[in-house]
């Protein structure tokens, strides 16, 4: 008895763990979550079209007229959607494209309450690098599923998103050691998870009120999902609920953010470009050759700099490094898409998406050493392109041909405050 009372003794904790083993196994065994009547979007776990991203062959471009077996040499190598901004992405083989970009991309965001109301929180914000280890899954209704039923809440909400994150570490070396042992032998879950509706069901829409959320200089109305956040998520992010009020918001389809600046005009394409919680434009494209160039310059600090750090939607293979800098219009799978402007980079890619650790310098330092190339912003580096499709809805997929329709000069236009106008526009 005296042994158990001494909480600082590691042997005592191990004895307690062994004695409670049957109960722990029953209560804490990891469970496979499959929302009823739904199917999971994306490639199977462990599969990726980027399995060979570090192959030296991607360091050089090839002719756009060349064939790679039955595939065009210039093509989509991989597709990604990031449903919850700054959190883990979902790799796709094909994707619907909607006015805000890839379907489900950047539709959710975390925010904290400040003097100006709700402010979005991303990997850029100090202390939020742990967002990188939060994973998402999108489950959509599947009428062919045996348990499909239109009356299910998962179906009424047009599917669900599962959000998972690492089990928070307890305070104290002994408790931490016991937790590691429990996770290692499979009696404790390594990750916690919860699910949210993809859209508020019509009958329950009042439970998810519309509130303004500040993202850069915009304040779109979004549905407040905060009531669904479990306390353990605050613990994982290192937030004190009594000091920091963390919220989860879902973009409202009726209150998207119109895009101006470098985007094509409504008069030109027949509709107003818009986005949800993406930084500025619907789709982000990056080429493997361009990435290999910067990765080589960072190798002294980061031997294998993954392209995943840059969180692009479309990753293309074929063009030589930085050929995309001068694209104005391209065709992807036969669909015309405007290359609105270059992607101006911040320090967000310094966060490793696998570990959640922020590098103190790279790749930001190397990028700024030679990629401050746009006269519209000579302070920051550029890598990749921001895209606006010329039609509102279509489907794109891995293997789709990428062709250049028009090249020209780009000049980045910085984000404006509400009411400001671009000179000459």
From TrEMBL:
Record-annotated MOSC domain positions: 257-405
SUPFAM superfamilies: PK beta-barrel domain-like
GO molecular function, one term: catalytic activity
A Pfam family matched in the record: MOSC_N
Residue stretches in coiled coil: none
PANTHER family per record: MOLYBDOPTERIN COFACTOR SULFURASE MOSC, MOSC DOMAIN PROTEIN (AFU_ORTHOLOGUE AFUA_7G05900)
Name this polypeptide is given: MOSC domain-containing protein
Species, as recorded: Penicillium frequentans
Organism lineage string: Eukaryota, Fungi, Dikarya, Ascomycota, Pezizomycotina
């Amino acid at each position: 008895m005296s042994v158990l009372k001494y909480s600082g003794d590691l042997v005592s904790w191990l004895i307690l763990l062994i004695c409670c083993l049957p109960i722990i196994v029953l209560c804490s065994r990891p469970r496979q979550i499959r929302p009823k009547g739904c199917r999971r979007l994306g490639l199977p776990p462990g599969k990726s079209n980027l399995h060979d991203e570090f192959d030296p062959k991607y360091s050089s471009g090839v002719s756009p007229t060349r064939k790679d077996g039955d595939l065009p040499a210039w093509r989509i190598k991989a597709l990604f959607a990031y449903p919850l901004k700054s959190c883990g992405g979902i790799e796709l083989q094909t994707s619907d494209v909607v006015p805000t970009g890839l379907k489900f991309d950047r539709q959710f965001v975390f925010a904290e309450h400040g003097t100006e109301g709700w402010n979005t929180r991303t990997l850029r914000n100090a202390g939020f690098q742990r967002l990188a280890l939060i994973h998402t899954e999108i489950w959509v209704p599947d009428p062919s599923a045996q348990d499909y039923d239109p009356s299910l809440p998962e179906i009424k909400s047009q599917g669900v998103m599962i959000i998972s994150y690492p089990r928070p570490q307890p305070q104290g070396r002994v408790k931490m050691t016991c937790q590691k042992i429990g996770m290692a032998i499979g009696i404790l879950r390594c990750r916690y998870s919860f699910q949210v509706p993809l859209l508020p069901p019509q009958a329950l829409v009042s439970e998810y009120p519309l509130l303004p959320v500040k993202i850069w200089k915009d304040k779109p109305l979004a549905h407040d999902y905060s009531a669904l956040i479990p306390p353990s998520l605050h613990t994982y992010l290192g937030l004190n609920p009594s000091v920091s009020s963390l919220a989860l918001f879902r973009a409202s389809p009726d209150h998207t953010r119109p895009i101006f600046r470098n985007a094509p005009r409504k008069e030109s394409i027949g509709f107003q470009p818009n986005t949800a919680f993406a930084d500025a434009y619907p789709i982000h494209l990056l080429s493997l050759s361009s990435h290999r160039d910067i990765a080589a310059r960072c190798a002294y600090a980061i031997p294998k700099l993954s392209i995943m750090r840059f969180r692009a939607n479309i990753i293309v293979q074929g063009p030589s490094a930085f050929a995309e800098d001068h694209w104005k219009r391209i065709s992807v799978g036969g669909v015309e898409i405007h290359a609105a402007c270059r992607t101006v980079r911040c320090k967000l890619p310094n966060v490793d998406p696998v570990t959640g650790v922020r590098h103190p310098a790279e790749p930001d330092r190397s990028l700024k050493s030679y990629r401050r190339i746009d006269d519209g912003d000579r302070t920051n580096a550029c890598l990749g392109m921001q895209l606006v499709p010329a039609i509102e809805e279509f489907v794109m997929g891995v293997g789709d041909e990428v062709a250049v329709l028009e090249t020209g000069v780009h000049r980045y236009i910085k984000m404006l405050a509400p009411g400001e106008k671009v000179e000459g526009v």
